[in-house]
């Protein structure tokens, strides 16, 4: 009915007094970490669409007084079929640097007038601008129609 004489556990089925050594558990409880990560994921999923701006832009024509034109301007033209012309001569894109050096007499600080057809995408125009920049021509003027009334 009660505890036996040799049993020192007090009759409750606990540990004996001689077993005071606790075994170390080398596991990390990741449940709170997962809960925090899920809350952060939800916050970012809700906040990310709010951070992006999606506006349709219809850029107007320029209404600014045009700058005076030099005596012999150097025009680089991007045609609708993405061919590049310097002046009136259609050239290959890899020959752009040499042709511009000839047209400007190796004056890298001369302004280059860049014009492109409406059908040319913005990415293709930026590609030509990067070619001009890599060639050392940093003064680039974009040519557009006069939109003043």
Helix-strand blueprint:
Layout: H1 31-51, E1 74-78, E2 84-86, E3 89-91, H2 96-104, E4 112-116, H3 122-134, E5 140-142
Parallel strand pairs: 1-4, 4-5
Antiparallel strand pairs: 1-2, 2-3
- Helical element count? 3
Please state roughly what percent of the residues sit in beta strands, choosing from under 5%, 5-15%, 15-25%, 25-35%, 35-45% or over 45%.
Answer: 5-15%
Query: What is the residue-mean pLDDT, rounded to a whole number?
Result: 77
Radius of gyration: 38 Å
Q: Compute the separation of the termini in Å.
A: 110 Å
H/E element sequence: HEEEHEHE
Overall body shape: elongated
In short:
The protein has 149 residues and is an alpha/beta fold. The chain has helices at residues 31-51, 96-104, 122-134, and strands spanning 74-78, 84-86, 89-91, 112-116, 140-142. It is elongated, with a radius of gyration of 38 Å.
Question: Can you characterise this structure?
Answer:
- It is a single chain.
- This protein has a five-stranded mixed sheet, with helices on one face.
- The protein has 149 residues and is of the alpha/beta class.
- It is built from three helices and five strands; from the N terminus they run αβββαβαβ.
- The protein is elongated.
- The protein is 29% helix and 13% strand.
Can you give keywords for this protein?
alpha/beta, 3 helices, elongated, five-stranded mixed sheet, 149 residues, 5 strands
